[in-house]
């Protein structure tokens, strides 16, 4: 299991670096105040209107960087640091979340695929680790055959989460692209403000890349154990 701890440790360190970098970038660009004076809420509402979306509400949600789009309730949920703030970071996040609403309205294929996987992944993610470690214990203490079967079940469930992580990548990058194109086309930001918004979204996207690569590395490690290569 030493290999697992090494992989987990490396993933943790890289994840912490990217997460801290994102927070520092968000803090930095929160000081870049918008010349148009619009809040994150106002930017989000305008982007929705400009894309012909009239059935999605923009609401405030507690927490930091807790922003998300809820397709079932049709709400763009903006954190307190985005909803009422008037800076480049808030503009970037607000527009990005509206990018998901536009994807939903236009039936973007990758978003539809991810939405279909949510119920399966939510269940699989709860039990995959238990099945994997249970299988490893059974292999070493009870029965190799039974242990391998349980381990395989765990690997399959874990693979669903890995697949979900990679499907999330085009969804997130496309939402950012839609956001940045709209911000530029509608002349919402100055050149400096736009550069700050773009950099914010780049670092946000990297958190998803780290999660996907980390999940794949862990999956391959467990597959190696199943095939008899520790």
How would you characterize the overall build of this protein?
With 230 residues, this protein is mainly alpha-helical. It is 75% helix and 6% strand. It has helices spanning 2-29, 40-50, 80-83, 88-105, 109-141, 144-185, 191-226, and strands spanning 57-61, 68-70, 75-79. It has a three-stranded mixed β-sheet with strand order 1-3-2. Strand 2 and strand 3 (75-79) form a beta hairpin. Helix 4 (88-105) crosses helix 7 and helix 5 runs antiparallel to helix 6.
Radius of gyration, taken over Cα atoms and rounded to an integer in Å: 21 Å
Helix and strand pattern = HHEEEHHHHH
- In terms of DSSP E residues, the strand content is 5-15%
- Structural class, by secondary structure, is mainly alpha
Residue share in helices?
Answer: over 70%
Number of helices: 7
Strand line-up in the sheet with most strands: 1-3-2
Q: Name the average pLDDT.
A: 93
The termini sit apart by: 8 Å
Molecular shape:
elongated
Report the major sheet. 3 strands, mixed
Give the strand tally.
Answer: 3
Spans with pLDDT under 50 lasting ≥5 residues? none
In short:
Helices cover 75% and strands 6% of the residues. It contains seven helices and three strands, in the order H-H-E-E-E-H-H-H-H-H. A hairpin with a 4-residue loop joins strand 2 and strand 3.
Question: How is the topology of this model organized?
Answer:
Layout: H1 2-29, H2 40-50, E1 57-61, E2 68-70, E3 75-79, H3 80-83, H4 88-105, H5 109-141, H6 144-185, H7 191-226
Helix pairs in contact: 1-7, 2-4, 4-6, 4-7, 5-6, 6-7
